[in-house]
Specification:
By secondary structure, the protein is mostly helical. It is 81% helix and 0% strand. The protein has two domains: 179 residues, Up-down Bundle (Growth Hormone, Chain: A), CATH 1.20.1250.20; 175 residues, MFS general substrate transporter like domains (Growth Hormone, Chain: A).
Length: 385
Amino acid sequence: MSVSRFRLGAVLGINQTLSWGMTFYLPAIIAGPVAATLGRPPFQILGAFSWALLVTGACAPRVGKWIDHHGGRGALLASIVVMAIGQAVLALSPNLAVWYLGWTVIGLGMSMGLYDAAFATVGGLLGQEAGPSITGITLVAGFASTVFWTLGAVLIGVLDWRGLLLAYAGLMLLVNLPMVWLLVPAAPPRPRQDAAAGAVVKSPAQRRAVVLLGAFFALRWFITSTIAVHVLPLLQGIGLTAAEAVGVAALIGPGQVAGRILEYAIGPRINLLVKARIGALLFPLGAAILLLGGPFAATAFALMYGMSNGIMTINRGTLPLALFGPEGYARMLGWLAVPVLLAQATAPTLSAPLVAALSALDVFLICGAGAAVAVLFLLPLRLPR
């Protein structure tokens, strides 16, 4: 079966932009208005999103196993429908219980339709040649937050939050669904294997690699989620004005895209693990630059932090494929997603006392030190010969 790597990366990049933008990046736009309408404190409204991430983590391994047997196209199509249903439930929510129900449905949809499912789809179609397409997907989808935070801020003023959610459900069904249906090919199903033959890891060395990789991604995403929630007050805490903080924070997204372009440009000329380690080091180096103080240091940090995160997102798809091969790749991504999603769901709550007790610079430096520790988990890893 001939599959265009460029077309596959572009189509799934647009798919991921739509799916991420209308689910994961949704709370930043609607949490305040929803809290006012339902008469609930914002933390209860945002708690539903954390719950959705836990649902996603719980479902991810089973979704991965299904994709290994049937290919990823069906999971992506189902995810779009499920996400749209969840958005409709949210739009009709009269109370907190229905609000949580809607996010439960969306959490199920996210387990079937975000990066892990897209990466697994590409892996099933292209095997070891999936790397450039995975990079292409993350490159296009790197603009999801910018596009949908901007679009959502405009539309919510016109449609209200309920109308915005219904509009997003319509976009899912009228744009995202037919695009995937028509342009993403189905992978040939693989025969079912018995439990022993179908094991994701088959040796002590592979089990150790899974633990190291899971620890790296979990620690990095815990730190990243902590910074994401508190980034504006933290930047103001190191001496930036409110306007400067917004401007510096806005550079994180372009930094992610720049990191992905750099990773794509370097391509196969540098060992994949070497690229991953260098990318991971950019974050602690950027945090150390903050010791210099001032807007210039903050700008350098934002760009280096964004580049590190952008490269790390690619690594989440490419490293498991390179280390463990295409057999059982989707299930491996599902299992690796569990600690990542747990970290994302719990980081804002668990880190809040630390952020409140320490200076902003200390918080950044502790996060940088944690990112440096995460790099150590990558050092023992070796690519198979």
